[in-house]
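#lab-general

N.A. 3:47 PM
ok so I finally got the sequence cleaned up, no stray characters, all 603 residues accounted for. can someone with queue access submit it? mine expired

B.Y. 3:52 PM
send it over

N.A. 3:53 PM
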Amino acid sequence: MREDMSDYITADHAGTLDGLFRERVRLSADKAAYTYYDRDQKQWVDLSWQDMANLVSRWQAALSETEFEKGDRIAICLKNSPEWVITDQSALAQGLVVVPLYIEDRPDNIAYVIQDSGSRLLVIQTAKHWENLASTAPDALKGLEHVVVVEGEVNNSADELPKVWTLSEWVAHLPNPLKERGGDPNELATIVYTSGTTGKPKGVMLSHKNILSIAEGSGKHVSLRSDQTLLSFLPLSHTFERTCGYYTPMMWGMHITYARSVQTLADDLLQVKPNVLVSVPRIFERVYERIQDQLANESAIKRYIFRSAVNTGWRNFKAEQGMGRRGPSHIFWPLLKKKVANTLLSKLGGNLELAISGGAALPHPVAKLFLSMGLNLIQGYGMTESSPVVCANKPDANDPDSVGYPFDNIQVRIGENDELQVNSPGIMLGYWNNHKATNEVMTKDGWLRTGDKARIDNDMVYITGRIKDILVMSNGEKIPPVDMEDAIKLEPIFENVVIVGESKPYLSAIVVLDPEKWVSLAKEHQLDPFDQEALNNNKLHKTVLQQIAMALKDFPGYAKVRRVVLKLDPWTVDNGLLTPTLKTKRQLIMNQFETDIVGMYAK
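B.Y. 4:20 PM
back already:
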């Protein structure tokens, strides 16, 4: 693989995040920077780096007409788009602090972050988004002075606060040269609010240097190149996407295309044909589930051919990694690659050279499937507080059961209770207005406590569990519920699950069934799928428990689920049971279904 470093910008040379943008414009003015889908024109539109500079300068002019001062906060509630980058870069160039918001988050959560951060300006996607927010939590928005609505028309009295602008009103300025501010790399650049699986989210304060150091380490670790295209679809409000899918590609001069939506991702992959993809495990899990679902309806011979391709490809992968030897079936690999592997990879666009998974653990069966098909799938690990990456596998040193090696500028160690602790230039400045929480997460000698249990073998990090999430049963056995839940969710029939059993003699589960699979399952058991009482059928529960047992076959014998409660209503961000990054809010779910949980232990 050719390594092109001619346009690479180091963190030291960039200095700040807005300095990185200015330098990229200088080096690559006429090169394609971003591509987005214009729904009015019904086509993909390219923007060069110079186009982006012109747009950023117009926003800088608009911001300069406000009374904002260095360090003031502005909030961004936009979908992934050039506007996100433009808003971010224009604010950073003014010395302002950016507060990213999830566009799909609940209005009350968005209002909390705006209020807690003291944001003075909000840039929001549509007029409807703003109307919903303003009507839900007007008191929490009293500190806002300006709101810029990117799409739609607005009605607002000139003497009312906040002043609401349309995009065309806000950027009614001619392009000018980009501002050169020479900022301090150690200054606060952004406040990123964590997902908040328990309680209110905390604002993680990250400096320019924090993010740039990790962006540079990420690109070097996986050998990015300037001739690659990245398809961006994870929310830019997620630090993983922001660092690895925005600033890192900018360092290397890569081309970024913004997916239309997660719903159109499959079609966007075929149209864009990206070289690089940054994703969370759930995307790969859904592809895996669809494949398993399709195989169930195929003939025995087709299932045999697919399994043969996976097993042969897996042995090839392990041999390439120095972890095993190719078997006799390798002679059939050219045919299996053509018929199975290439067909699968073509659904990802056919040009994918690198897929990076982070944000949560990648289940081994899912990793095995894609790696056996020849996809260069790299798993990494980190947290918002570390900007966010700590370590990752490498293309030539890839153990899918590990989260890989720490970056060259990062140190890791194992502390009390087998906790992974990190010392890195990416470690946050602290939590916004929360010294107590900052002190709790940092050791006395300045290392970050991750809250994850781990071991380190031959410099590779293996995550073994979550300290706070471990269930301790009444018999003293310790259970990792998240790992078990991830395994169960790979079965197509299950949409979501939470395992309970703290201080109990056995494990139980609250299970959300896939609505489509439920109809077939109900008919198999001669039940009415529209009758809620059917979910309590004993024979149905026995079938579900058998499916769960199959999913957990690789776990110890004591990790057995003995009771279930079945639900059909999905857990979503809107109903507050999922975070914007689609993690379950365990405690809220347990509170909501407390009666059901008590019932499972009363039998």
